[in-house]
């Protein structure tokens, strides 16, 4: 009897362990054929991986960790697969995932989802990045020479760019998966120009798509000597549009916005923030706003005197004190002659902010915002009535407060960043006529391109005509009519917002038709 009980107990234990260790095979499949035909995937050099909220259920690592092996294509049919063992306790649960290229380039758009089913789950073959249409890219190799002028901070030791120890390196040309450096990696290091103190240069060859735009900037080193995460330029990325294949271009000489580390302030310092609101435009519509109807102007940023964060939602709630230990995340300026404002009613909104000695000084970044009746009706984010300054979201203002002066003033202009770059078309806004008569009918390449989520389309008319400006998808289906009316001769700009139109990533075509003439431009939306 005792032996029988032991046998039964052992049998039950074995069944329990077997059930506890039960696994559900899960198979992922992704087709890389389109990417390969487009020249964006090389089976000999590139890898495809998978990541998501399911990883922990495999026992291989944490969710969204790079612990899953690369997918394989054993039969060379361009379909990469992997089968993983999932814990059976996860049956019925839903998970999110995405495919990645070289553990670096994520698929755009929303996360994919699946529900684990028993006894096994085989996901259908998916196109990488949901792209099943081969796009023929007009690849171009451009050779570019850069020259940087660091004479303003040239010196020896800490607080200066020291030629004996410091360095400059070019970064960028990587916003799109088709971009790459052709020249050796060492060519990205800027070298001192002989007999020209403070000038540094490099020449690189890059590969991209003709007429597409990309960004670049430089970084100074060693990192511990410089502000902004170890020497990155504070300014927005500089833009470059690829020219025809074989182009050789001398880039315009520039002063890198790199700043050596400064110490703590030895005295109390008052910063007077001033913003010119004479001709503000709302970034969501490109339209000028009458400064007389503006009721609030705010400032938000990442620095000590602006609460050290970009917290909040760009709403009126950000202007109130929620935590007694913190300041509001959106500080209000005024144009009534108080708190540092020099003259009431001059459209220069201002605010004094004083911080104590011992505070860390240096570069900080910030943006302004405005509120006026009706502003809430043109915002993309629901309720974010103050988020309306820059069209291109990577733009910002900045100021370098060293602390050697007791009073520091900023002199900013709404829509212009710290480099004096206008975030809006410089000629006219949407449906406004230029005073300069165009020389020819034209539809210019949208900027930026690729874009996410907004881009500006510019065109020129020679005479008064009925105009149609439309956007089509790659299947030739019309997705939006932007303009359909009679317009006079002039230059026009129109803002295309993919978020409002709920457009998915992919190729789109912009068609301009006027007076019997038609022009088309290809646009690429990358989310």
Summarize the amount of helix as a percent range.
Answer: under 10%
In DSSP terms (H or I, runs of 4 or more residues), the helix count works out at: 4
Name of the top-level CATH class of the largest domain = Mainly Beta
CATH architectural designation of the largest domain: Sandwich
**In total, how many beta strands?**
31
The largest sheet is: 8 strands, mixed
Summary tags:
disordered N terminus; Immunoglobulin-like; 6% helix; 36% strand; 527 residues; 31 strands; mainly beta; globular; 4 domains; eight-stranded mixed beta sheet; four-stranded mixed beta sheet
Textual characterization of the structure:
- The chain is mainly beta.
- It folds into four domains: 2-130, Immunoglobulin-like (Sandwich); 139-250, Immunoglobulin-like (Sandwich), CATH 2.60.40; 269-413, Immunoglobulins (Immunoglobulin-like, Sandwich); 442-525, Immunoglobulin-like (Sandwich), CATH 2.60.40.
- 6% of the residues lie in helices and 36% in strands.
- The protein is built from four helices and 31 strands.
- The chain has helices at 2-20, 33-37, 227-231, 498-501, and strands spanning 23-31, 48-52, 79-87, 94-101, 105-106, 112-115, 121-122, 126-127, 139-149, 167-172, 180-181, 189-192, 199-209, 213-221, 238-241, 248-250, 269-276, 296-302, 331-332, 348-355, 362-371, 397-401, 407-409, 412-413, 442-443, 454-461, 465-473, 478-487, 490-497, 506-514, 517-525.
- The strands form seven sheets. Strands 9, 10, 11, 12, 13, 14, 15 and 16 form an eight-stranded mixed beta sheet that branches.
- Strand 4 (94-101) and strand 5 (105-106) form a beta hairpin.
- The longest helix is centred in the first third of the chain and has 19 residues, at 2-20.
- The protein is globular and about 75 Å long.
- The N and C termini lie far apart (70 Å).
């Amino acid at each position: 009897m005792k032996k029988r009980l032991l046998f039964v107990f052992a049998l039950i234990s074995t069944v329990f362990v077997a059930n506890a260790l039960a696994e559900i095979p899960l198979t992922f499949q992704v087709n890389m054929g389109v990417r390969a035909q487009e020249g964006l995937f090389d089976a000999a050099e590139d890898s495809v991986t998978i990541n998501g909220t399911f990883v922990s259920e495999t026992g291989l690592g944490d969710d969204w960790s790079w612990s899953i092996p690369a997918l394989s294509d054993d039969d060379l049919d361009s379909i990469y697969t992997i089968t993983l063992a999932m814990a059976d306790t996860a049956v019925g649960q839903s998970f999110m995932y995405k495919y990645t290229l070289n553990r670096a380039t994520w698929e755009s758009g929303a996360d994919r989802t699946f529900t684990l089913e028993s006894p096994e789950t085989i996901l259908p073959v998916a196109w990488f990045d949901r792209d099943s249409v081969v796009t023929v890219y007009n690849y171009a190799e451009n050779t570019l020479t850069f020259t940087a002028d660091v004479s303003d901070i040239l010196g020896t030791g800490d607080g200066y760019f020291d030629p004996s120890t410091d360095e400059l390196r070019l970064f960028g040309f990587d916003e799109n998966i088709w971009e790459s450096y052709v020249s050796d990696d060492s060519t990205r290091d800027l070298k001192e120009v002989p007999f020209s103190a403070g000038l540094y240069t490099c020449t690189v060859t890059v590969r991209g798509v003709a007429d597409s735009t990309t960004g670049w900037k430089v970084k100074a080193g060693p990192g511990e000597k410089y502000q902004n995460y170890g020497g990155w330029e504070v300014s927005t990325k500089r833009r470059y549009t690829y020219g025809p294949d074989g182009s050789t271009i001398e880039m315009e000489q520039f002063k890198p916005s790199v700043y050596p580390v400064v110490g703590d302030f030895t005295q109390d310092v008052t910063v007077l923030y001033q913003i010119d609101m004479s001709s503000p435009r709302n970034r969501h519509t490109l339209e000028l706003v009458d400064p007389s109807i503006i009721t609030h102007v705010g400032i938000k940023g990442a620095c000590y005197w602006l609460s050290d964060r970009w917290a909040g939602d760009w709403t009126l709630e950000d202007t109130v004190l929620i935590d007694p230990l913190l300041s509001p995340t959106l500080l209000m300026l005024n144009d009534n002659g108080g708190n540092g404002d020099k003259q009431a009613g001059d459209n220069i909104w201002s605010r004094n902010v004083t911080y104590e000695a011992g505070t860390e000084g240096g570069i900080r970044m910030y943006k302004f915002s405005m509120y006026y009746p009706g502003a809430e009706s043109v915002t993309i984010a629901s309720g974010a009535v103050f988020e309306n300054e820059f069209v291109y979201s990577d733009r910002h203002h900045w100021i370098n407060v060293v602390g050697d002066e007791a009073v520091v003033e900023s002199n900013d202009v709404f829509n212009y960043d710290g480099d004096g770059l206008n975030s809006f078309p410089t000629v006219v806004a949407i449906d406004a006529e230029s005073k300069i008569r165009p020389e020819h009918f034209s539809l210019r390449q949208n900027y930026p391109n690729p874009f996410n989520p907004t881009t500006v389309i510019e065109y020129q008319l020679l005479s008064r005509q009925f105009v149609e400006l439309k956007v089509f998808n790659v299947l030739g289906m019309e997705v939006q009519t932007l303009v359909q009316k009679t317009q006079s001769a002039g230059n026009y700009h129109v803002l295309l917002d993919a978020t409002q139109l709920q457009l998915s990533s992919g190729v789109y075509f912009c068609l301009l038709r006027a007076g019997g003439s038609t022009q088309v431009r290809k646009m690429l939306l990358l989310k």
